[in-house]
Amino acid sequence: MEDAQTTFAEVKEKVMAFAREREWEQFHAPKNLSMALAAEAAELMEHFLWVSSEESRNVSADPAKRAKIAEELADVIIYALEFANATGLDAARSIEAKMAANAQKYPVEKARGRAVKYTEL
Amino acid sequence: MEDAQTTFAEVKEKVMAFAREREWEQFHAPKNLSMALAAEAAELMEHFLWVSSEESRNVSADPAKRAKIAEELADVIIYALEFANATGLDAARSIEAKMAANAQKYPVEKARGRAVKYTEL
Amino acid sequence: MEDAQTTFAEVKEKVMAFAREREWEQFHAPKNLSMALAAEAAELMEHFLWVSSEESRNVSADPAKRAKIAEELADVIIYALEFANATGLDAARSIEAKMAANAQKYPVEKARGRAVKYTEL
Amino acid sequence: MEDAQTTFAEVKEKVMAFAREREWEQFHAPKNLSMALAAEAAELMEHFLWVSSEESRNVSADPAKRAKIAEELADVIIYALEFANATGLDAARSIEAKMAANAQKYPVEKARGRAVKYTEL
């Protein structure tokens, strides 16, 4: 699978099949999945605790570290899409709606080069 | 956009364009994005703090709550894909590799109906 | 040390001395400490991903698991107090102020037996 | 209350009384408290998403921001100590044991000035 050809629906199906085969749907309540997702996001973050933001841009230089980070990112997206499965949400549609809202909240002219909350623009 | 037709690459491009237009790439170091991702995952989780796992399955019943949850899920995936952009990772390829590893760690026969770590199977 | 006799100041001093001896203060910027704290909180949470809320009350039954959980809780408080050190905050004073505010937001009569946000009381 | 005089036991009692008065113990299962703790840690972290580690050291300069951060830190410690209440753990004793283990894992000579995991020292 590659990003260029892979749809969200394809991954959602694979993830659901994986859980179903193992009879894990009983554990995959939205509450539990939201916890697992947050836990995996924290594991991804742990790779960057003590480096500066600038240093974190060079993470790709070390192949072993890069492979670990790819695994944590995969875990995050897997749980996010299993959460979508468990709640019947369409991820792409939700993203489209959220990005439209964000475009309203952060108009290009006002937000350019500024990392502040929209309420402070 | 809908899950059935939307590829990861499409969303990655939209997310990157959104940041670039606002000159936000200077803020989008992997360290910072991993924090934003973890923070959004926590916001999603906050909707489920005090309900039981079983109750969390009925979240869809309340449309206002469902809309909020869809927004938080969107934020999580947006930051995950912007993280992929910032690190040059292919999300779908990473997921495929991780799911293959998971299938080894959790063989169907051993893992069926059991929510324990693979080291305890 | 035991809760009955140990003050916040005592633990703050021990934690600061530990970091100072190792010349770790250079890494202990508030940003980094807030990440480490969130990461440790997530590790504590990982012990409860797939059990129900009710089952989680019996965690003490398994001594090995209990010991692990005690370690994670310790890590959380250690980083919280090192964060207080790094920012010059008085933890107890902050807690007192926050509990007074919470008492206003959640009056006993209205909040009794209800796990909803104060804006919905 | 101030750090210099306040014991962990005092705060644990106040936090427990607050919950008991409101009949919230039914919601305060360890699973739920671990989620609330992680969510509050994420809120603390949100104040530092887009600043550099160095910039985060000057957070005290802005009194309004400092007050917000003190509130989030208070929430973290409140939930950590309510978690200790719910699980019957002694926080100070757990911290003492964990710091002794950390001193073994990170000997001063080897760990000085280095922010790497003990397995890499």
UniProtKB/TrEMBL annotation, chains A, B, C, D:
<dbReference type="GO" id="GO:0047429">
    <property type="term" value="F:nucleoside triphosphate diphosphatase activity"/>
</dbReference>
<dbReference type="InterPro" id="IPR025984">
    <property type="entry name" value="DCTPP"/>
</dbReference>
<dbReference type="Pfam" id="PF12643">
    <property type="entry name" value="MazG-like"/>
</dbReference>
<protein>
    <recommendedName>
        <fullName>MazG nucleotide pyrophosphohydrolase</fullName>
    </recommendedName>
</protein>
<dbReference type="GO" id="GO:0009143">
    <property type="term" value="P:nucleoside triphosphate catabolic process"/>
</dbReference>
<dbReference type="InterPro" id="IPR052555">
    <property type="entry name" value="dCTP_Pyrophosphatase"/>
</dbReference>
